[in-house]
Amino acid sequence: MSVPDHPETASGTEESGRKIPPASLARLPIYLRALNAMLADSVERVSSEELAEAAGVKSAMLRKDLSYLGSFGTRGVGYDVQFVSQKISALLGLSQEWRVAIVGAGNLGRALARYSGFASRGFEVVAVFDADERIVGTRIGWLTVSNADNLEFELERTQTNMAVLAVPAAVAQQLCDRLVAAGVTSILSFAPVVLQVPPHVQVRKVDMGTELQILAYHAQRAQETESGSRARSAQ
């Protein structure tokens, strides 16, 4: 697919039926965060170069990513910040009401339940669960930790449509199965295990150990490059 140098300079309607590559999709929330920061500063228009710099990517990459949303804007004027923010929000499903349950109220689960960034991005944490009787009934902000035995009842009562699994690997699949059986089809898992789910269920796995290993790889490569440069300079 050919991409114009400045898709914001063309006018037209939203492209439909185009599948967005995973890498481009992963960058859209970054663009949205930058756009919303600009809106908070009363910025109405932004060039692709300025938005790319704010998002920490190359302008050509940003233009290609945004081309999947359609072509819009005016030559020499740039992107309408509010319009592009709304387009990305709609594409990401943020115009819907997302009610989130956190399963697992250990250190990680409690930290996630307290995270204020969820609400500002359109996600409301409506329930927290744990199986430990010492934790059940305790408070995390305005929420009371519910017994995991009552998972299905509470999911229905709170109309939960998204869940976060912050539990050990040994119980993750069992709890995942219960979530799916209760009608939850969007799950974010911090459990260090691959979960088996039906095709209609979306699971995103966050493996902090793997991410640290990738960081260590890049850090080692940087050290090797620096050592090589010093060696060549000394010759």
Q: Please tally the helical runs, counting DSSP H or I stretches of 4 or more residues.
A: 9
CATH superfamily assignment of the largest domain? NAD(P)-binding Rossmann-like Domain
* Proportion of helical residues: 40-55%
- The low-confidence parts are 1-16
Intertermini distance: 47 Å
Model description:
The protein has helices at 22-40, 48-55, 59-67, 81-91, 107-114, 117-120, 151-158, 169-181, 208-234, and strands at residues 45-46, 79-80, 98-103, 123-130, 139-140, 143-147, 162-165, 186-189, 202-205. By secondary structure, it is of the alpha/beta class. The chain has a seven-stranded mixed sheet with strand order 5-6-4-3-7-8-9. It has a two-stranded antiparallel sheet with strand order 1-2. 26% of the residues are buried. Mean pLDDT is 85; it is low at 1-16.
Provide the descriptors you would attach to this structure in a database record.
Rossmann fold, two-stranded antiparallel sheet, globular, 2 domains, Arc Repressor Mutant, subunit A, 235 residues, 7-stranded mixed sheet, alpha/beta, disordered N terminus
Topology:
Blueprint (H helix, E strand, L loop, with lengths): L21 H19 L4 E2 L1 H8 L3 H9 L11 E2 H11 L6 E6 L3 H8 L2 H4 L2 E8 L8 E2 L2 E5 L3 H8 L3 E4 L3 H13 L4 E4 L12 E4 L2 H27 L1
Parallel strand pairs: 3-4, 3-7, 4-6, 7-8, 8-9
Antiparallel strand pairs: 1-2, 5-6
Helix pairs in contact: 1-2, 1-3, 1-4, 2-3
